[in-house]
């Protein structure tokens, strides 16, 4: 078997997991039920945070969101829950990225950037992976 | 600058890439003086972790000198000789606060891939695929180190480069296996795998007070190193029945703590290996869990099994019955380097922890592809190939 074939086959079961997760989401999306909230816990006490003054791009899209803060149990910090309002134009991806950036800004004062300049070269094979990593904070389950 | 790049499955080459730049104010640039192969790289090389791109720079166990520091860096200055943890951690999130550094929330710029695969994303690592952040690795003249105040450690004058290098990954990973595996004075500890990670786990178990430490492998030169430099007992799994031998050496109880330092490409004599390899090649399972199975079976009732070997996906024939009915604790983790490196450097300075023998081959970076071939094929007694950029 050539190398390309081997790589693709190797990727298959792991990539299949990701594809299955996406499929589950689609099925859920067809139901008209209310959209699930996106929630993260940031390691900062509730009294130090103000929902209208969260750092990062969350505040830029705040008018399309319902943001609630709650104290997390066991000294774990504060739970930030976001519901996208009906008729909003922001996507789940925007919200995931904004929440992750907000968490990092609250906890570290910064958002980690990928290393660079890049050392990789675009090829046919790595195009899907490059697409995914260009939106690295937008996907996932958050 | 020159760097070792992944060019495809089982294809490496040294090429010219742009010098790394400071990206965040907490970054430093390190001029790499020593960088070394790790068993984890073999899983990338073989295509078992399919998130590599042509041109990615490998390497995550290294030491060097700081040549540039961002404006927010407080603990270091240009000229510091540092050893760096393989995993990248912010030092401020809840996981870092719990000293579970490889689970950091803010150290991976691509959390989506592993969050989808595993439910939640671990942190980023140097030179370890785009699933772990796509950070350029250390097999290069220079490397960018983010969160340098948290992940880079100044090496004391009393510790040589040759020794300190392994605090970066093998020694901290091995220590974690013994520590979080719960090794206590008087324990019998068994370690699967006599690579650098297994050897360091065995040494950690001894230093934590284990009464007997037994390391299992089939490569005689590695077992010899264990006896000579680590001071542990050995067992060659091709020459004896591992379960029976461990039972006999532990008064019939089985080892209190079993540490697996083999990983997803484990080897076994006989039919089990063929079964697992065929299933892996047909993609019916992604990983070969041969040593984990054996560890769970051998472990004493109520004992603990710590999985240091890297696994990516799913395994077959997992002995859940033994785990449940024997009341075992099974745990695993990517390395929490920041938790252990200062203590390890201290022990290295005192001579309690020696590592130099692991560097069986030292080569210029230009010969890194050859170094990986020897490391992968275990040619010429290769345990670790160290590169000098
Ligand atoms: N958890 C972490 O953070 C972390 C860090 C570093 C390495 N690792 C992983 O630890 C594992 C070991 O790393 P290494 O650098 O020492 O690798 P290595 O390849 O040098 O050593 C692995 C050893 O396991 C032996 N082995 C194979 N099958 C075996 C079996 N069935 N029973 C007993 N021994 C067997 C091999 O002969 C070899 O000596 C790898 O999977 C690596 O990815 C994990
Ligand atoms: Zn490693
Ligand atoms: Zn953190």
TrEMBL record, chain A:
It comes from Actinoplanes siamensis. This is Uncharacterized protein.
UniProtKB/TrEMBL annotation, chain B:
Transmembrane segments: none annotated. Keywords: Metal-binding, Zinc. Residues 25-149 form the Alcohol dehydrogenase-like N-terminal domain. InterPro entries: ADH-like_C, ADH-like_N, GroES-like_sf, NAD(P)-bd_dom_sf. Its cofactor is Zn(2+). It comes from the Bacteria. Residues 196-265 form the Alcohol dehydrogenase-like C-terminal domain. Gene3D superfamilies: Medium-chain alcohol dehydrogenases, catalytic domain, NAD(P)-binding Rossmann-like Domain. One of its GO terms (molecular function) is metal ion binding. This is Glutathione-dependent formaldehyde dehydrogenase. It comes from Actinoplanes siamensis. The lineage of its organism: Bacteria, Bacillati, Actinomycetota, Actinomycetes, Micromonosporales.
């Amino acid at each position: 078997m050539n190398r390309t074939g081997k790589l693709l086959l190797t990727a298959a079961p792991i990539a299949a997991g990701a594809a299955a997760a996406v499929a589950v989401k689609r099925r859920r999306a067809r139901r008209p039920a209310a959209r699930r909230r996106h929630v993260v816990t940031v390691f900062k006490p509730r009294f130090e945070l103000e929902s209208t003054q969260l750092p990062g791009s969350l505040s830029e899209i705040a008018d399309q969101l319902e943001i609630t803060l709650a104290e997390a149990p066991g000294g774990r910090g504060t739970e930030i829950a976001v519901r996208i309002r009906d008729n909003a134009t922001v996507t789940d991806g925007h919200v995931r990225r904004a929440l992750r950036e907000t968490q990092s800004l609250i906890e570290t004062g910064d958002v980690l950037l990928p290393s660079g300049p890049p050392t990789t070269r675009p090829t046919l094979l790595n195009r899907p992976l490059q697409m995914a990593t260009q939106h690295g904070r937008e996907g996932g389950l958050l | 600058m020159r760097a070792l790049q992944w060019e495809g499955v089982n294809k490496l080459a040294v090429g010219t890439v742009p010098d790394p730049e400071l990206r965040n104010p907490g970054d430093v640039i390190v001029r790499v003086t020593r960088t070394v192969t790790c068993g984890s790289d073999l899983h990338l090389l073989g295509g078992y972790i399919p998130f590599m791109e042509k041109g990615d720079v490998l390497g995550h166990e290294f030491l060097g000198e700081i040549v540039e520091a961002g404006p927010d860096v407080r603990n270091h200055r240009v000229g510091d000789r540092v050893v760096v943890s393989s995993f990248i951690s912010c030092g401020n999130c809840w996981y870092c606060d719990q000293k579970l550094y490889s689970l950091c929330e803010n150290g991976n710029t691509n959390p989506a891939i592993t969050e989808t695969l595993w439910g939640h994303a671990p942190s980023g690592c140097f030179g370890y695929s785009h699933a772990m952040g796509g950070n350029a690795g250390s097999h290069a003249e220079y490397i960018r180190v983010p969160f340098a105040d948290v992940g880079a450690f100044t090496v004391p004058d009393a510790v040589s480069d040759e020794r300190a290098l392994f605090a970066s990954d093998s020694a901290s990973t091995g220590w974690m296996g013994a520590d979080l595996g719960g090794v206590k004075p008087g324990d019998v500890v068994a370690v699967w795998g006599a690579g650098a990670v297994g050897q360091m786990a065995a040494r950690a178990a001894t230093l934590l007070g284990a009464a007997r430490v037994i390391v299992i492998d089939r490569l005689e030169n590695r077992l010899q190193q264990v006896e000579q430099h680590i001071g542990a007992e050995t067992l060659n799994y091709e020459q004896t029945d591992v379960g029976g031998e461990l039972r006999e050496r532990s008064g019939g109880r089985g080892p209190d703590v079993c540490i697996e330092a083999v990983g997803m490409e484990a080897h076994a004599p006989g039919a089990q290996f063929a079964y697992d390899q065929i299933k892996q090649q047909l993609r019916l399972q992604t990983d070969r869990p041969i040593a984990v199975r054996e560890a769970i079976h051998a472990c004493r009732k109520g004992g603990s099994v710590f999985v240091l070997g890297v696994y990516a996906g799913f395994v077959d024939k997992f002995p859940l019955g033994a785990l449940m009915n024997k009341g075992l604790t099974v745990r695993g983790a990517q390395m929490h380097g920041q938790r252990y490196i200062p203590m390890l450097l201290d022990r290295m300075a005192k001579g309690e922890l020696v590592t130099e023998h692991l560097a069986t081959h030292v080569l210029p970076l230009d010969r890194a592809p050859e170094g990986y071939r020897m490391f992968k094929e275990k040619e010429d007694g290769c345990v670790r190939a160290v590169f000098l950029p």
